[in-house]
Amino acid sequence: MIASDKEPGTTVRYRPDLEVVWEADWIWRSRRIRINDFAYFRKEFKVRGALVSAKLFYSAHHTAKVYVNGKKLGGFVSPAPTNPEKRKAYLAYDVTALLASGANCLTADAHYLGGGGQNYYDGLPGFRLQLHLTYADGTEEVVRTDATWRVLKEMPHETGTPYQQNRRVSAIEKFDARKLDPEWRFAGNAEAATLKAKIARIVREQWPMAVQRIPEGAIEEEIVCAKLPQPAGSDVDEERPQVFDPGRIVSGWPKFKLKGIAGATIRLRMSEDLDENGRVKHNVTNEHSDHYYDEYTMRGEETETWQPDFSFKAFRYVEVTGYPDEIMPGEVTVCWAHTDMAYVGSFSCSDEHLNALYAAAIRTQKNNTLGQTVDCPHREQAQYTADTDLQAETLLYNFDAIDIVDKTLSDFTDAQLADGTFPFVAPVNYEHKDFHIQIPEWDLHYATLMWKLYEASGYIAVLEKHFETARRMTDYFVGIRDPKTGLVPLDKGWHISDWPYPTVEHAGEHLTVQQIKLVLALRIVSRSAELLGQKKEAGAYANLASELSDRIVGQLYDPEAKRFRDSSESSATHQGVTAIALLADLVPAEDREAAIDSVASQPWECRTVLSLPLLRMLFENGREAEAFALLDRREYPGWGYMLVQGAKTMWEGWEDIESHSHAWNGYPARLLQEFVVGIRSEAPGFTKAVIRPYLPDGLTFAEADVRTPLGIVQAGWYREENGAVRVRARIPEGMSARLSLRLDGRTIDRELKPGDNEWSTDD
């Protein structure tokens, strides 16, 4: 969009509590389907008297920005992506304050991707809006999209531009400001520049509409960039590259505010990396791309401001070319944007390295939640079950993230295949050959994610909503068990166990990690059935879990080594395989301590996926020192190694070769809060809690805030100069809590009351 003296100011926030019965038509600028298409819509109408309320609802496929008399509604990248055949999201606003008596104007800029990309569903292009006016005299009026709406003949956005990534998740924005009349968004004589809109060809009423529950995208911070030295060899280059650095990898988009030069085309190229000459590389993380840029052609106004915000990107550096003058500090910024979920968590301790680890994990989570949880905000922008399961650790402890985690479960319910399995991501153009992919082990994370959301929220409605999907998924795996071994074979798809670049051996037909994840899923289905009053089903699934557990131990456990083999044809015994088996309580009781000793004493072998069960198993089985040593580690491998290399967000794996902002590596933030400060839930919805801190020798204090449905739990421990330990905790009303402190070989237990609590070993 172009900014001028009439540029929209503060946006109007969306209202998920408002719902509507849809009557409006889906419209588009033509009946021809084009990839990376745009449409600019306009409708003038009159307000004939005093208004009591004006409620506006809109949806688009794929995204739109809506303006009322020039004021932009809501946030960014809206509506959130879904499979519209199952559930099409719409936004709702109260716009009463934006309307005036007499002539008013609605405009909308809509964008359709449609290229068979990875993180959306193609469907067909369309825009839909209803504005409900209620007058003081009791009468009502509805303004809705239909054939009376107008569309801009010559649009400022170029259609059919290349996709920016190999997975076709966002398109280059090429915007010519000369083609948008500054009066377009306001009532008046703009009809000459328009054509009639077209009613969308398909019967869109088949798309079930649902108000969007997750917050829209919002800009948290506009970061002023440092200007880097002029790239080598570019002093006579007509492009005149000027490179800017916000200081870290950011999800969002670049923005400039420059003196207008009529006809000048400004290119904004983005990347995580610079080449040997100091120019921005042509890549999206580890994949080559000549198209990770956006362009703006200037109108020639005194000052012009622009940001390519129809989609989001992620990058460290911005290279500006095509602007003939020197760009001054502050004229190029980066908008850090993410889903506007409230962030209420915290962690702080006496070690700045651990504080930096927590901060990097939180930044990474924010970078990966614009419209849905995604694995990385640049190369893929895709929503996986396993990735969200790992992300949910930190999200649910630090953010008001119930709705965004629920969206992952709902999207996979919508994508569930007839046999009960899932595509590898959702939403997705699964029928496209590039994305006709499955990851069976990832399917099993649906159940653990569902249970994690239930425990965090305490809402039985979570189980009521998602139980049937989880049951159908587990039934598929039960149904393909080998009749001789009773174990689940490899079956279709891509198999992982650990990632990235794991050393788990996949030599056999039956992978141990997959079997264990199925046991966990069956137990969850059983517990869920019990809570939902389905006693018979609860018993049946509990029996299946027990039977499979026996088969796993009987065929995949090495009683001499006290470890589980990686797979049915392997003699290898990976640290993470036995760690997840211990966490699932599958190791024979008489061997448990020996197995824990074996795992704890082994060099760190796990990658991102299996390091979480490894750390949880160690923390929960009296091996806090070994677990904390991994969290605190500064050498390769580990999260600390990333920070030592200068990272301010978490990488995809231990190696510096792929995504440098990968949300599944953000769970150390949760572990610091849960095990070092010791804030732990003991009942769904945090109705019962324990403060059970671990006091490493190198720390003098650690404190944290954790979000719960009952309010924020605050806790901290502090070493006094005289050697005493002081503990503080603030407990919300309605929560039963206790302190359990292990110190000098003894355990100190104290009940904690609602409100402020303080206790010291000197007391």
From TrEMBL:
Residues 242-336 form the Alpha-L-rhamnosidase concanavalin-like domain. The keyword Transport does not apply. Keywords: Hydrolase. Its EC number is 3.2.1.40. One of its GO terms (molecular function) is hydrolase activity. InterPro entries: 6-hairpin_glycosidase_sf, 6hp_glycosidase-like_sf, Alpha_rhamnosid, Bac_rhamnosid6H, Bac_rhamnosid_C, Bac_rhamnosid_N, Rhamnosid_concanavalin. The keyword Hydrolase applies. It is an enzyme of class 3 (hydrolase). Residues 678-745 form the Alpha-L-rhamnosidase C-terminal domain. Residues 344-674 form the Alpha-L-rhamnosidase six-hairpin glycosidase domain. Residues 52-202 form the Bacterial alpha-L-rhamnosidase N-terminal domain. It catalyses: Hydrolysis of terminal non-reducing alpha-L-rhamnose residues in alpha-L-rhamnosides. This is alpha-L-rhamnosidase. It comes from Cohnella hashimotonis.
